[in-house]
Amino acid sequence: MVERTSLKMSKTSSASSTLIRRISGLALAVLVAGCSHVNVNAPNIKGIGYVDVAQAAKHDPMYPQVQALDQSLSALNFAARTTAHLTAAQIETQINKLNAQLTAAQAQTQKYISGKQNQYLHEESIAIGQALAAAGVPNAANIANSLAASASGKQQAAYMQAGQDLQAYRNDVMAQDSATMKATMDQLRKEISSKLQAKSEELAQRESSLSLKESSEDAGERLALQTRMANLALDNAARKDIQAKLKAIDAREAANLTALRKADSQEFDAYRKTLLSTMNQRMARESAAMQQATAAKLQSRQSQVVANLKNMAPATLPANLSDATKQRLASIQSEFSDKFNADAQAAMDAFNKTKTDIQVEYAALKNGGDLGSADAAKQLLTVQQQRQDLYAKIVARVTQTAQKIAKDRGLSVAIADPSATPGGYDLTPDVTKAIESLHE
What we know:
Helix content: over 70%
Number of strands: 3
Distance between the termini: 37 Å
Shape: rod-shaped
Oligomer: single chain
Largest sheet: 3 strands, parallel
């Protein structure tokens, strides 16, 4: 049995077979009608000829185009009917982009905070220098600049190191999450693919069994009618009656098979939707649990970093300062500290909002990232029509060639069905040779 990836894909070859059978049936009628003017009593009449249309068609110069269209149909069927989700590689690419955006936002926030820190340290240094000078401290400006430089160097280094450590920790946690979710998604998709393959094969076997059963049941009646058709003494009315009965048998079998295929298609779609729904629910649960655990880890590490920065020792001031000067210096430090903290908090709020937006996109990617398949479905209809039109042209060329050869040989009837003419003349080799000559 030919392996099929999905129900729709298996129906490509099945639909092609159905099309061949229908066009061949049309060719049968055309061939017979084309020779109906032959005088069956003429001395040059040699009997009945037949041609295997499907076999001869494979030698037509345009048949490679049919094969190429069949490949396109298989690909489009797969795109239209299988799970329309981003691949693992596409999801990983998008996640990497989000990580890069988060890293850029982190760097921009650190740069802004560092700039504000330098600005307020400079302004604070000037204010401290003025306060020390007013208190009569020698070299007040130099002391203030030294304090500012010391504070700037220590705090900036501490902030930079803390930021780098926090970002490295965040990247490590997110990388672990990404790897875990990717592995889980890959495993689930493998399971779904395996189940869909098994279901597809089950339905294909059901259709094949029905087709075989009905062909077997109708074999006797069909053979009897085809044998009667071979009788040259039949008048046109009797021949048309037999043709109508043969068509009725074909139509009944086709209708039963079509009904089963429709039911199988609906059953397959429902089964696929159930599998996908189960997968999405599981991924959503695992993604939510992982995001909660990740947020707790990051918050804990960030709180630890903030606590460590707050515990940094302040710069050393001259020991002989008066209480009033100390109070003034404390007031200056408090003022600029409040300004810096306000600006830093605003920057962190903006960063956290960006991070939240990125996390929303991150969660959506973890849940599969749906892609529409409407374009594939539209292309499918177009290619199916192209395939049908092209094969019809090939069959027409085969039937015309068979009619000419039959006429040249003085045959009374040329039938496009080898099984319908026991003891007849096989025109297939000559027709095939004539068709192949078109390549030259």
